[in-house]
Amino acid sequence: MAERYNIHSQLEHLQSKYIGTGHADTTKWEWASNIHRDTYASYLGHFDLLNYIAIAENETKAKVRFNLLKKMIQPCGPPPQKLEEN
Question: Which PANTHER family match (predicted)?
């Protein structure tokens, strides 16, 4: 029983420390947005991936970098409307 509590507390600590790990109340939209942002950040952080995308799209690296940064604002579109509970 003590080990189960320990694992649960470690999971809660990770979820509070790193926003991308999610929690019980994470919506599908939030989770997908985090995944997309992590992917775009990886593309921006790896020089060779950025070069590959630039060559594949026949664009300059600066333009590709700008487009990826712009996509990070709302990668999955605007957030869905929340239903009001009465």
Answer: SPLICING FACTOR 3B SUBUNIT 5
Is 82 exposed, middle or buried (CB count within 10 Å of its CB: 0-12, 13-18, 19+)?
Answer: exposed
Give the model confidence (pLDDT) of 29-46 as tens digits: 988 998 999 999 999 999
Give which of 51, 81, 79, 84 is closest to 65, Cα–Cα.
51
* Residue 44 near residue 65 (C-beta atoms within 8 A): yes
Q: What would the pLDDT profile of 43-52 be if each residue is shown by its tens digit?
A: 999 999 999 9
This model's pTM is above 0.85: no
Domain boundaries, the chain: 29-72
Cβ atoms of residues 42 and 48 within 8 Å: no
Max Cα distance, the chain (Å) = 58
Token digits of residue 85: 């509970």
